[in-house]
Amino acid sequence: MLPFDFDYFKPDTLEEAVELFQYLDHNGKQPMFFSGGTELITLGRIDLAYTEAVIDIKEIADCRVMSLNGGQLLLGSTLTLTEIEETNLFPLLTKTASEIADHTARVKITLGGNICARIFYREAVLPFLLADSQVVIVGPEGKKAVPIHEIFHEQLLLNRGELLVQTITESRFIRAPFFAIKRRQQWETGYPLITVAALKIDEKVRVAVSGLCPFPFRSKEVEIALNSGQSIEARVEAALRVLPRPILDDVEGSADYRLFVFRNILTDALYKLEKERI
Ligand SMILES: Cc1cc2nc3c(=O)[nH]c(=O)nc-3n(C[C@H](O)[C@H](O)[C@H](O)COP(=O)(O)OP(=O)(O)OC[C@H]3O[C@@H](n4cnc5c(N)ncnc54)[C@H](O)[C@@H]3O)c2cc1C
Question: How far is the CA of 224 from the centre of ligand 1 (A)?
Fold first, then answer.
């Protein structure tokens, strides 16, 4: 049960959703886009989220797109993680998404909801960072496609009233060899101690990480170190020296323990991807 009431709106089009947001915002309703809705339920119950108007975007057709045409994969933001797993158009995304929460939650959690979530793990963004994807955004200024690296820095930097519509990924990335692993401190579902997704393209390894820092990241400095031509162990040590900071240090795991686990995962990823040629 949520300790507050709110009005519920279900627009049919992007234009309607954007206009509704502006109208409700102007009238002090603190509107919130609602996709899978798990965040409002989780955070609303403990007074960390509040709204007087929910705008449910789940059924807007542009947000439901799933197509692989002309060398591009389009994925709508309100596809659920289970829909993405079942169609398996982007195997690295399937693997990453299938480790988020448990099956019951993944039936609800959506791609866009996970990428835009306030809870900072946002694991579903990792494959898109590796694949230099674009994101389609709509807002009061209209619709545009933006390279993910221009708009995702720790989180998706949307202006007020903007929403994520789709991701666009070139098919050569979805066919590239990959490695993905999630380590948890306890249980078999839930938030990560560390999640690493890696991909090999043009003979270079790319790595994106969630759970090591209080934000997901892909780092140019880390990738330069990992592709430097020394032994795998030396490359991993060099990568550890240029990690973004801070390293998480909490009940899930100390910073030292996280770095220990991360070192082992990176080493495994390099040994696996070293054998792949593309
Ligand atoms: C039991 C459980 C375990 C979980 N474990 C993990 C885990 O291990 N790793 C992990 O990464 N996540 C995990 N999550 C998911 C995470 O914490 C969020 O709850 C979830 O990702 C939100 O997705 P949603 O589709 O429900 O989004 P919603 O709750 O609908 O929205 C989330 C936020 O994003 C905004 N939003 C939604 N869609 C859009 C859009 N298209 N454009 C702009 N803004 C938008 C909403 O306004 C809201 O602020 C878990 C969740 C649960 C319930």
Answer: 32
Check whether residue 170 and residue 190 sit in a common domain.
Answer: no
Tell me whether residue 1 is in a domain: no
Say yes or no: 165 and 134 in one domain: yes
Q: Is residue 35 part of a domain?
A: yes
Q: How confident is the model at residue 251 (pLDDT cuts 50, 70, 90)?
A: confident
Q: How far is the CA of 36 from the centre of ligand 1 (A)?
A: 7
Q: What is the tens place of the pLDDT at every residue in 149-184?
A: 999 999 999 999 999 999 999 999 999 999 999 999
Q: Are residues 49 and 113 in the same domain?
A: no
pLDDT recorded at residue 86: 97
Phi-psi category of 70—alpha, beta or left, where left has phi over 0 and alpha has psi -120 to 50? left
Please give the Cα distance from 124 to 78 (Å, whole number): 13
**Rounded-to-integer distance, Cα 119 and Cα 35, Å:** 15
Residues touching ligand 1 (Cβ under 6 Å) are: 32-40, 42, 57, 77, 100-101, 105, 108-110, 112-114, 116-119, 121-123, 158, 163-164, 190-192
At 202, which CATH number? 3.30.390.50
Report whether 23 contacts 3 (CB < 8 A).
Answer: no
Closest ligand 1 atom number to CA of residue 49: 49
Ligand 1: which residue has its CA nearest to atom 31? 113
For residue 70, give every residue at least 6 positions away whose Cβ sits within 8 Å of its Cβ, in sequence order, or none.
Answer: none
* 78 and 24 housed in the same domain: no
132 shares a domain with 203: no
- Ligand 1 centroid to Cα of residue 131, in Å, is 21
The CATH number for 83's domain is 3.30.465.10
User: pLDDT value at position 172?
Assistant: 97
